[in-house]
Amino acid sequence: MNIPLTSQLINMCAALLLLIAFAMLSQRRILSLINLFALQGLILAFSTALVAHTSNQHHLYYSAGLTLMLKVLVLPWVLHRLIRKLNIKWDVETMFNIPTIMLVGLALVIFAFNLAAPISQMAGTITKSTLGIAMASVLLSFLMMITRSKAVPQVVGFLAMENGLFFAATSATYGMPMVVELGIALDVLVGMFILGIFFFQIRVAFDSLDLHHMEKLKED
Amino acid sequence: MFDQFGMLPIDVVLGVVVFWLVLGMAGLALQNSRLIAQFIFPLSAIGSLVLAGAALAGLGEVSTAILPLGLPDLPFHLRLDALSAFFILLLGAASIGIALFSAGYFRRMVAAELSLLCLEYHIFLASMALVFLADDAYMFMVAWESMALSSYFLVTTDHNQPDVRRAGFLYLLIAHVGAIAILMSFGVMQSGHGDYTFSAMRHTHLSDFWASIAFLLALFGFGAKAGILPMHAWLPEAHPAAPSPVSAMMSGIMLKTAIYGILRVSLDLLDTQLWWWGAFALALGLITALFGVIFAAVQVDMKRLLAYSSIENIGIILVGIGLTLIFHAFHKEALAALALTATLYHALNHAFMKSLLFLGTGSILHATGERHLGKFGGLIHKMPKLAILMLVGILAMAGLPPLNGFVSEWLLLQAFLLSPGLPHPYLNMLVPVAAAALALAAALAGFVMVKFYGVIFLGQPRDTTLAHAHDAGLWERIGMICMVIGCIALGIFPAFVILHLDFVTEMLVHHSLGSSAAQTGWLLLTPIQAERASYGPLVLLLIIGGGSLITVLLVKKLYHGRLRRGPAWDCGFPAQTARMQDTAEGFGQPIRQIFEWFMDVVRQVPSPFDLHPHYHGETHDRLWNLFYVPIKRVNEIIGNQVGKLQHGRIHMYLLYSFLTLLALLAFIQ
Lengths: 220, 669
What we know:
The structure holds two protein chains of two kinds. Chain A is mainly α. Chain A has seven helices and no strands. Chain A has one domain. Chain A has helices at about 5-25, 30-55, 60-85, 100-120, 130-145, 150-175, 180-205. The longest helix of chain A is centred in the C-terminal third of the chain and has 29 residues, at about 180-205. The radius of gyration of chain A is 18 Å and the shape is globular. By secondary structure, chain B is mainly α. Chain B has helices at about 10-30, 35-60, 80-105, 110-135, 135-155, 160-190, 200, 210-225, 235-240, 245-270, 275-295, 300-330, 335-370, 380, 385-395, 405-415, 425-455, 475-490, 495-510, 515, 535-560, 585-595, 620-645, 650-669, and strands spanning about 65-70, 75-80, 600-605, 615-620. The longest helix of chain B is centred in the middle third of the chain and has 36 residues, at about 335-370. Chain B starts with 8 loop residues before the first helix and ends with a helix.
């Protein structure tokens, strides 16, 4: 095998990301979900740093740092604080049948790899083989948003989707321009604060964070 | 005539448009009924006069202008050619009388309402002028839509009545459906070049198929504005709802913008004309004309009656357009010119006579507060001046010589009679049938007008409130006199009018009528040849006038020489009441009997034992149930189905986006 070590490490990170995406999909407990999200961010930051080291793209170091700070430290901390304040730390969520969701997730991964194959062949980056995984984790996070009924896991799903997009950008074209990345980071941060406020409002209005109650808002 | 000031006619027209807009804003700023009525509206009439003069001067030349308004890189193109000049002339000439009438009619209105009405009125006028001037689809649609919107607000002046709001909504809806069709027609005509100026469309050659699509879309879209079947439903609703000067303007002038549009698209913008377009327009026009006149005959609301009569006249004009297209497609240019002259002449006539009648209904409405024909009767005693003015309009509308209605219908029938030269056997056989149907419509129009005048002005008052009726005011009479002068002048001097119409026919069908029409001098109108047919209106007028005068003199000299007024012969039954007169329903009864299968009649016949019997009959439009109601149902069903997509579950909404994302990804793959 003549694949260099860094490349192998990157591939391993990608595999871990996919594994975490599946873990998030099947995780019922909110606290564990947030921890998984933090872990995903950590692996993402690590892999970005590896890519930066391999390809000598220095701006990727900043990206990695940003990811580490925002997605591993700030956002999980905010989320932890939120669920403590909302007193839902030990909540267990009812979901659809988990094996079925996993099967659907498998189908999505196959679809994503199939989709990424022609793009991977065109891309000249050393991370080209991971594009399929990046897309798969975007789709899996989306699927997670659909299957969750509570507000906090949906937001975690949304943030995880952003992680997947970030990974896709890194693997396809060595990341987006710094300005765009900074913008997205700010968006995620602001979005998180706004959603946090929403949580409280939803709880005041419906006495619960279960989104089924929002069906009442529809006009007949 | 403006040349000595160094101004082109198009500059003057634009100046008047700006002047009108300024007047509208001034009216909004004034907020004073008396000032608006006595100064703004007469000034507006002066603007109309200048506009008519400029258009008359602009008939013989083509001038263009580019307004630096609109979007960046997309300026407004304007062009004044013979066709637009003719219609601007129509707008200016007909709006003089309407503006003067409005000066009297609106003087008692609440100031806040009147100032808004004044603004909308002038925006309406200005946008109609811009519709005629527009030389690109963008400008045209902007002007067209502002015309529709301003007229919508004019129709809903009395918006606190639910009926009026409903009528306004129906009008707006049909106007917008039509506007979409017009827009699509322009889209077809620019044929993918992305250049929406009319000059580019003129130079684009479309295949027969696409040209037909463009023509049919335009016919549908403009037909919605004109009231061609089956898009006529808004006319009988909107006209009774609107104030009378507004009805006059909409019926007299605005319907003509649609005629202008059809002519502009079919004969100017499209470079090929297929004969079946003409046959289609002819058939549609005939159906519309007969439908309009039959329904007019059974109406009991005076403004509704006039609205149906407008549908009839638009039908006649469309018949003329159809005939023009047929002749033009077969390269019979002389006959096409004759048919087109008749069409344009009738459009001009209708602007005057229908506006006159609508203005008259406004005076009646002010004097009595009634629209229902069953309440009138004997108004000739209470409103003698109005009765004389209305009589001219009625005679013109009925198509009697020597007034203007006769000239255009006669010219159109002449065109029909000359059609056996067509190189198409089926058309040759069918055209005489169409001519007969047109003659039937003209005859029934006479019946309708006799009913209208007879029930309102003749006989005895059917209602006690009529005792307080007062004659039309001075401004109102002046406005109507302008219209009457138009009706008489157009009837007496047709050769002059045709000489001016020649500019338009020359432009559209490359042939003109003037050389032959006035070949035996301006006294006699000879459309083709003197030995075939000729018409001397002035001679006829002199004979009619002289004959009447001699009869009156003879009667006065030889018989008794004084006016006697006595009771009518009562057949030996002395207890005569006004209820014994023929009612509006009764007058229309024969027509209703004959065409009952055609309409949806609801009757309430009183029982023989009823001591206070009241007959009640209503005639509805079958097309409403056959055409509009199904469309509404289908819309509702589709709306309900789409509504099911929205159920308030966030997960389903996310699923929609997810599935869309997957589908798009699969698609780009």
